[in-house]
Structure of VOC family protein:
Amino acid sequence: MPLTWDQMIVEAADPVALGGWWAQALGWVVVDDASESGAFEILPAPDVTPGLLFVPSASPKSGKNRWHPDFRPADQAAEVERLLALGATRVDIGQGEQPWVVLADIEGNEFCVLSSRP
């Protein structure tokens, strides 16, 4: 019996702010705005999974993420600039010189923006 990936849970100091940031960064839709459930959920489109579910956490982030997403845009430089304008920051997690760019979202969660495929 195969597994179907439904969503990734993201613990956040502010689920609404972080979920809203990722909705804007990914161009996804908000399907639960945390007004009743306390969780903020975004999907690529209504009823399309997998999605991201942002839940409250009192624990601060500590250290480098052990799992992070990689994104491959059509234009790496333009996408990095767009994400930086949204509030992402460049981070050094010891990657050295690489063809990808490591960024962090507004709560410090790392992700990579890969170079475009030839």
